[in-house]
């Protein structure tokens, strides 16, 4: 069966019987990926609540049905687990961490923490207040990790 180059979705072919199965299979994966979020990172499918439509990033040294799928996005479906390979520069929201993750081509990276302003020879209270508020907003949106 032919597959798409980016997310490995099943494609229809001429005179295919039961086209709806292939089409619906692709829609389930697309539906999960369009949501742009995962429940967290896990290496063992037995440790997650496999609610239909929810997704996880497969962590290091995966086991069970997730074996050999490290860094893939595992999607729970009515028919079992489906997997989507990550693309370089892909971003996804991690509900467990409350922040964004980015795939650098070999691993998923979380946002880096930035400390609030402190110290220095000249203390500018107004600038420090603005920087602290800016960092708080970035943390709230998951763009910067909490310190």
Tell me what the structure shows.
It is a single chain. With about 150 residues, the protein is of the alpha/beta class. The chain folds into two domains: about 20-95, no CATH class; about 110-140. The chain has helices at about 20-35, 125-140; strands at about 35-40, 40, 55-60, 75, 80-85, 90-95, 100-105, 110. The strands form two sheets. Strands 1-6-7-8 form a four-stranded mixed sheet, covered by helices on one side. Strand 7 (about 100-105) and strand 8 form a beta hairpin. It starts with 18 loop residues before the first helix and ends in a 7-residue tail after the last helix. The relative contact order is 0.13. The mean pLDDT is about 85.
Which percent band covers the strand fraction?
Answer: 15-25%
Low-confidence stretches: none
- The tally of beta strands, per DSSP, is 8
Please give the radius of gyration in angstroms: 20 Å
Structural class: alpha/beta
Summarize the main sheet.
Answer: 4 strands, mixed
What string gives the helices and strands in order?
Answer: HEEEEEEEEH
Give the termini distance in whole angstroms. Answer: 48 Å
Tally of discrete structural domains: 2
What portion of residues is helical? 10-25%
- Please, how many helices? 2
Q: Which strand order do you get reading across the main beta sheet? A: 1-6-7-8
Shape: elongated
Break the fold down into its secondary structure elements and pairings.
Elements: H1 19-35, E1 37-38, E2 41-42, E3 55-58, E4 73-77, E5 80-84, E6 91-94, E7 99-103, E8 108-110, H2 125-140
Parallel strand pairs: 1-6, 2-3
Antiparallel strand pairs: 3-4, 4-5, 6-7, 7-8
